[in-house]
Structure formats: C-alpha cells, structure tokens
TrEMBL record:
Protein species of origin: Curtobacterium luteum
HTH arsR-type domain boundaries: 23-118
UniProt keyword annotations, A-Z: DNA-binding, Transcription, Transcription regulation
Protein name: Transcriptional regulator
Transmembrane domains' residue ranges: none
Listed InterPro entries: ArsR-like_HTH, HTH_ArsR_DNA-bd_dom, Metal_resp_trans_reg, WH-like_DNA-bd_sf, WH_DNA-bd_sf
Top-level taxon of origin: Bacteria
C-alpha cells in the first residue's frame, strides 16, 4: 500500500512541475474543454470500451455501447478532433484506439467519484 501512495505522490508532483497546476495556468480552459468533450454518456461508454481493447471498429463499438454506427461515428469524430482517439484503416474498415491513457483515467476517476456520490460501496475501495 505504501508503494501505491508513493507512486501517486510522485506522479502528482511530476504533473505539477510539468503541467503547471496553478489555478492561473493556461491549461485551465483547455481542461474545461476536455471535460466538456467527455460530458456525454455515449463518449464515456466509448472510452470505457476502448480502454479494454487495443482497438475496435465503429460497428463493434456500436454494438458495445448500444448505439447506431452512424451515432458512434459522429462521437468518434469529436473524440478524434480532441485527439483522444486515433485511427487505423484496414480496407474499408476503420479501427479506433485511445491515443493515450489520460482520457481513460479521467473517465475511470469520474466513475469512482460517481460511486461515492450515490453512496454505493465503491468498487475501488472494496477488498476481495
């Protein structure tokens, strides 16, 4: 447990040095845009689906998030513009993957926060 705390502390310390987590930072407005991009249930579901897979096609993602391929494609286009996902084409099929772990970490943290808000026993706090 101590190792996790130290790793978290070091990660947070490095982030402060690199990103400037000061309230006056130029990144504050960009962070707001990131949260706005993730403020949609379908996009959150897409990020969660992609975090468990190396890459997925639009049709496969549509099945997973229970939306039409056209709707998923529109959401993926927005996530791509925000550089949260990237693509690879194989013939006529386009595969999507998360660009890096940051969007996934934000979504996971938001789900954990939601567990606390509703008073549920958070899965990340329960022991097996």
């Amino acid at each position: 447990m101590a190792g996790i705390a130290i790793t978290y502390y070091l990660r947070m310390h490095v982030d402060k040095q690199v990103c400037g987590l000061d309230p006056e930072s130029e990144y504050v407005e960009l962070a707001v845009e990131v949260f706005a991009m993730l403020a949609d249930a379908t996009r959150v579901k897409i990020v969660l689906a992609l975090r468990n897979a190396e890459e997925m096609s639009v049709n496969h993602l549509a099945d997973v998030v229970d939306k039409s391929p056209a709707a998923v494609s529109q959401h993926l286009a927005k996530l791509r513009l925000a550089r949260m996902v990237s693509t690879r084409r194989e013939g006529t099929t386009v595969f999507y993957r998360l660009t890096d772990e940051h969007a996934s970490e934000l979504v996971i943290d938001a789900v954990k926060q939601a567990e606390h808000v509703v008073g549920a026993a958070p899965h990340h706090r329960t022991r097996a």
